[in-house]
Design a protein that fits this description.
238 residues; mainly alpha; MetI-like fold; elongated
Length: 238
């Protein structure tokens, strides 16, 4: 038992203390956060655009717009392809085919994860828009407002409030998915653990360590989301 504990202590020292390796873990965690927030911002922008196009197409009644039909078809292809292929494959294509000459791996990771997230966020936002009473749109149009102003000023703000918890869950999913960017060589948290393991030939501590870090961050984000949801419920009562 004593030898086992001594061995664990030695592994811990080699994996985190020796050479100030713990600093590398936190730098990797910072990159993971950077990719997560950038990808979420891009995903929300893409998600809103796709959701608005698809909702506008679905809400057409008498006159069918051919241009809107083309955009709707493109949006359907986008969501089908992105949601139907693994994110790792998308990262490999973006990192080693489309942007093979780029050295800005953070931008490549943000772009890839953002495009992937946009396909899922679009369905979340679309569901939020469809949950709003159609009378809201009709009331806005009766006041002389166009479709776009009503969506921007009336419908989307209400929909965003309804889907904030789902967007929070997307944030958590994105953060965990940043572990995949190691396949394009980005020095995120997972990549740092792999590099430390390659130097120390010890796998337990580096990988257990990042698992604990991921878990702590997810628990904090879940706690913050719980606070947000409670405040939203309280505001709905008032």
């Amino acid at each position: 038992m004593g030898d086992f504990l001594t061995d664990l202590q030695q592994q811990f020292y080699q994996s985190f203390i020796e050479g100030d390796r713990w600093i590398r873990y936190f730098k990797g965690l910072g990159i993971s956060f950077e990719v997560t927030l950038g990808a979420l911002a891009l995903g929300i922008v893409l998600g809103i655009l796709v959701a608005v196009v698809r909702t506008a197409h679905d809400q057409q009644r008498d006159r069918k717009s051919g241009l809107l039909g083309v955009f709707n078809a493109l949006c359907q292809i986008y969501t089908t392809v992105i949601r139907g292929t693994p994110m790792m494959v998308q990262l490999l294509i973006m990192g080693f085919v489309i942007f093979s000459a780029s050295r800005n791996l953070v931008a490549v990771a943000i772009l890839t994860l953002g495009i992937n997230s946009g396909a899922y966020v679009s369905e979340i936002i679309r569901g939020g828009i469809m949950s709003i009473d159609p009378g809201q749109m009709e009331a806005g149009r009766s006041l002389g407002l166009g479709y776009t102003p009503v969506m921007r000023c009336v419908v989307i703000p209400q929909a965003i409030k309804n889907i904030l918890p789902a967007l929070g869950n997307e944030l958590i999913t994105l953060f965990k998915d940043t572990s995949l960017v190691t396949v394009i060589g980005l020095a995120d948290l997972t990549k740092v653990a792999i590099q430390v393991q390659a130097k120390t030939y010890q796998a337990l501590m580096p990988f257990l360590g990042i698992a604990v870090l991921y878990l702590i961050v997810v628990m904090i984000l879940t706690w913050l989301l719980g606070i947000l949801e409670r405040r939203l419920r309280q505001s709905d009562r008032h």
